[in-house]
Design brief:
It is a single chain. This protein is α/β, with parallel strands linked by helices. About 30% of the residues lie in helices and about 25% in strands. Strands 1, 11, 12, 13, 14, 15, 16, 17 and 18 form a 9-stranded mixed beta sheet that branches. Strands 2, 3, 4, 5, 6, 7, 8, 9 and 10 form a 9-stranded parallel beta sheet that branches. The radius of gyration is 22 Å and the shape is elongated. It starts with 9 loop residues before the first strand and ends in an 8-residue tail after the last strand.
C-alpha cells in the first residue's frame, strides 16, 4: 500500500529515521559504558521495543502496570516500572506478573514498600525495587538528601524485596531551553544524586544501579561517573519539543500524523481532518507540517487543524503530514502505526499498550 492511500488521520513512523534514532541512543550508552533501558511509554508498541532490544538495550521501562502486562505477554523478560504501584489489587497483579517476567518497580514510601514485600513474601517471590529520588521535578520520589539513604537502608531489610538501585527523572530541566545552561545544570544535579548512592555503598548498602531518565539530557548524564543506566523514551521518535530545546533537529523526527485536506475556504487557508484528539495539544503548541515549510497552523479543535499558506496550492483531498509537538501523547491516541519508507507502507503494527492507564 502507498502512504497516500491510507485513511486519515494515520500515525506514520519513518523507518529510516526510527532506526537511526535507535542506533544513536544505543551508541550514546555504549560509548559511555552505561546500560540503556528505553522507556516504551513513547511508542507503546512491542514491535518497536523488540528493535530497541535487538540493537543492544537491556530490558525496557513502562509507566503503567497495564503496559507491563502487555509487554510481558509479548515476551519481554526484564521490565521496570519507574512509578509507584500502590493499590492492593495492583500490588497483587504486580507480584503475580513475576510468573511471566522479572518485574521491577519504584517505591518512595515505606508503607508501599512493606505492602509489596508482604504480598511477594506470601507468594514466595522477590520483587526488585528502585528507590525513586526527586532531584527537582517535585513529582513522585524522595527529595534528594540524607532521607534517601535512610529510606534505602530500611527498604533493603524488607522481606520479599530486593533493593536494585536508585532511579530519577530530570524532567524539570525541560524548563531550561538553553543547551549549555541545561547541560551544566544536569551535570551538577546528577553528580549530587550519584553521591547519595556512593554514600549508601560506603555504609554497606548494596546499590547495583544508579539510573537517569531523560532524552533531553541523556548525552550529559551518561557521562557522569557513577551513572549505570539510562531510561530515555522520547528519542525513539523525537518531536518538536525536543527540536525546540536543541536535543535534536527537525529532520530526525520519525513520527508524523498523515491528514487529508477537507476544506479550502479561501486561497490562503485550508483545514485538515485531524485536531487535538490526534495531536493532543497538551503543551498548547501546534504541530509542524512536513514537506510544506510555508504552512502555518492557526487554530486547532477536536477534529480540525486550520492552517494558512503563502505559496502551496492545496486542494481538497490532498495529503499533508504534521509532526506533533509531543510525540508520547500523540501515540496514545492511535490503535496502530504505519512504518513507512518514502511513500511505501512497510509494516502495520498495533500500539498494544495504548490506553493502558490502570
Amino acid at each position: 500500500m502507498k502512504v497516500s492511500e491510507l485513511e486519515t488521520p494515520a500515525l506514520l513512523i519513518d523507518q529510516q529515521k526510527l532506526m537511526r534514532n535507535i542506533t544513536y541512543m544505543q551508541e550514546v550508552a555504549n560509548s559511555s559504558g552505561v546500560t540503556l533501558r528505553p522507556h516504551t511509554k513513547t511508542h507503546k508498541c512491542p514491535e518497536i521495543a523488540k528493535l530497541q532490544v535487538k540493537a543492544g538495550a537491556r530490558g525496557i521501562c513502562v509507566q503503567k502496570l497495564g503496559e507491563a502486562e502487555v509487554m510481558a505477554q509479548a515476551g519481554f523478560q526484564d521490565i521496570l516500572i519507574p512509578n509507584e504501584i500502590v493499590q492492593p489489587t495492583k500490588i497483587t497483579r504486580l507480584v503475580e506478573l513475576q510468573e511471566k517476567a522479572t518485574i521491577k518497580v519504584a517505591v518512595d514510601s515505606l508503607e508501599n514498600a512493606e505492602s509489596i514485600g508482604k504480598v511477594a513474601a506470601s507468594l514466595g517471590r522477590t520483587i526488585f525495587v528502585y528507590v525513586d529520588v526527586d532531584i527537582g521535578m517535585k513529582r513522585c520520589g524522595i527529595p534528594l538528601g540524607h532521607s534517601v539513604a535512610k529510606f534505602s537502608k530500611k527498604v533493603a531489610t524488607i522481606k520479599g524485596l530486593r533493593l536494585e538501585g536508585l532511579t530519577t527523572y530530570e524532567g524539570h530541566l525541560y524548563k531550561i531551553k538553553n543547551v549549555k545552561q541545561r547541560a551544566k545544570a544536569a551535570n551538577r544535579i546528577i553528580k549530587q544524586y550519584v553521591e547519595v548512592g556512593n554514600r549508601l555503598r560506603k555504609a554497606g548498602v548494596e546499590i547495583p544501579k544508579i539510573c537517569c531518565a531523560s532524552t533531553l539530557t541523556a548525552t550529559v548524564t551518561a557521562r557522569v561517573p557513577g551513572v549505570s543506566e539510562l531510561h530515555p523514551g522520547n528519542y525513539i521518535f523525537y518531536d518538536l519539543m525536543q527540536v525546540e530545546r536543541g536535543s535534536t533537529v527537525f529532520e530526525n523526527c520519525a513520527q508524523s500524523v498523515l491528514t487529508t485536506v477537507i476544506s479550502t475556504p479561501t486561497n490562503d487557508r485550508f483545514v485538515v481532518d485531524a485536531g487535538s484528539k490526534a495531536f493532543v495539544n497538551d503543551q498548547c503548541m501546534f504541530p509542524r507540517a512536513l514537506h510544506y515549510a510555508d504552512l502555518t497552523p492557526y487554530s486547532i479543535t477536536e477534529e480540525h487543524l486550520a492552517c494558512t499558506t503563502k505559496k502551496s496550492k492545496l486542494r481538497v483531498g490532498d495529503k499533508v503530514q504534521f509532526v506533533p509537538y509531543h510525540a508520547c501523547t500523540a501515540t496514545n491516541m492511535f490503535d496502530q502505526l504505519y512504518l513507512v519508507n518514502g511513500d511505501e507502507v512497510v509494516e502495520n503494527w498495533p500500539i498494544s499498550a495504548r490506553g493502558k492507564m490502570v
